[in-house]
Amino acid sequence: MKNIKRLALRSRMITREFWFVPAVMTVLALILAETGINMEEKYGVPESLNFVYGGGETGSRSLLSAIAGSSIGVAGTVFSITIAALSYAAGSMGPRLLENFTSDRGNQFTLGTFISTFAFSLYTLRAVTGSNDQPFVPHYNVTFALALGVACVGMLVYYLAHITRSINMTQIANLLRNDMRSALMHATLEDDPDHDGATAPPQEFWLGGETLHAPSSGYLQLMDTELLLKLACDAQVALLLHVRPGDYVFPNSVIAVGVPRLPENVMDALTLGDRRTVGQDLEYSVRQLAEVAARALSPGVNDPVTAIDIIDRFGDALCSLQDRRWPDGVYYHDHQLRLVVPVTDFDGLTDSMFHMIRQYGKSSPSVMLRMLEVLGTTASCLTDAERRGVIRRHAGLVREDALRGIENSGDRADIEDRYRDVLNTLANGPVAEVRRAARHAVRQAQGDRAD
């Protein structure tokens, strides 16, 4: 059974590769060059087209040679700059962010412009003949090659500005924030007051069922829930998955249980790969941001401002979720249990967001204070009691680690003050948040006067 979603995932991964857009542009340039040559051989150049290049064979050769040589030379420069940017990104922000640079369409189109200009000019150059009997100059192509040369100059200017923005830490944080928010919006549902939620059966229900062992290893990149449900319904069985997108599947490990038996072709609905991907893997973008913050808090970098920026992005994502409903991962058909899959919940998401930053930043007062402030603001956006309890738990962990790692009495007092603000917001809701915001404004004003 063919998995359309798997094909779509593979296609999306291929089109995001660094070579894809330059390769397509080069092929199109060669086709366009051949088309221009054929048109001129058949129809010539009307006298009314005054803008078309009108030089002879020698001038055409010199012009095309200059464009081809300069375009491929600058392409090498562009590639060198890209490698330098990737090295900087890998060293300061982590190697997992390299994909964000290589899949950037601006970088791909810039390199594609130079390579396609080289291919177009070189292909056209072979058509220029200087025979006395029948000389031929592809005027259309030479004119278009001139236009491509001008475009290369514009793309070079654009690329220098673009690559500078791309390695800016704030820009990277915003891009990862957008990926994270998009993934969360797709994974969650609009709040439905009438939705009661389905509950999974106890573990005893699955005892004695037929187990599926992983035939290979890799990250689970895609789980086709619709296909899994269809397979279970067709076989009239209940199916339990032990893995979720983003998990690493070990060879021969148990990944599914079927009661009373397994349906056929379960692996057709599961796509394994060598790396994690954005999409169903909700924690992937979160971990990318958390890794940037952790590296910023390392002794060799010591950049708490970047960590604070990341904490703000996490608060942004949680407040955007507000009270959107998380899927329960339990599927019934005709009142019969057919499928249970593990899902990421609010608790696990916040753990991925804050645990690593708290552990690495526990001796940084500014980071811990900002984390408590963001938790307080997030608490004001949530009404679900369970989620507010998660915020309370994280605030307690931050307070405990901060008091253990910070020795200055003034900083410790500020930690206690921010922690009380979180508790007041959790207890009293928006009213407490207004009071907290007012106190924060007073503190800022007092700091400005002190400066």
**What amount of the residues lies in strands?**
5-15%
**Which stretches of 5+ consecutive residues score pLDDT under 50?**
none
What is the 3D shape? flat
- Strand order, largest beta sheet: 1-5-3-8-7
Q: Report Rg.
A: 30 Å
> What structural category arises from helix and sheet content?
alpha+beta
Mean pLDDT: 85
Question: Level of helix content?
Answer: 55-70%
In total, the number of domains comes to 3
Number of strands: 8
Task: List the helices and strands in order.
Answer: HHHHHHHEEHEEEEHHEEHHHHH
How many helical elements? Answer: 15
Q: Give the termini separation.
A: 68 Å
Sheet bearing the most strands, described?
Answer: 5 strands, mixed
Short recap of the structure:
It comes from Deinococcus aerophilus. This protein is of the alpha+beta class and 451 residues long.
Report on the architecture of this protein.
- By secondary structure, the chain is α+β, with helices and mostly antiparallel strands.
- It contains 15 helices and eight strands.
- The protein folds into three domains: 4-167, no CATH class; 195-344, Pyrimidine nucleoside phosphorylase-like, C-terminal domain (Aldehyde Oxidoreductase, domain 3), CATH 3.90.1170; 362-451, no CATH class.
- The protein has helices at residues 4-15, 20-43, 57-93, 98-102, 105-125, 139-166, 169-187, 225-235, 282-296, 304-321, 346-361, 365-381, 385-405, 409-428, 430-450, and strands at residues 210-213, 218-223, 238-241, 248-249, 254-259, 270-273, 330-333, 336-340.
- The strands form two sheets. Strands 1-5-3-8-7 form a five-stranded mixed sheet, with helices on one face. A three-stranded antiparallel sheet has the order 4-2-6.
- Helix 9 packs antiparallel against helix 10.
- It starts with a helix and ends with a helix.
- The mean pLDDT is 85.
- Keywords: Membrane, Transmembrane, Transmembrane helix.
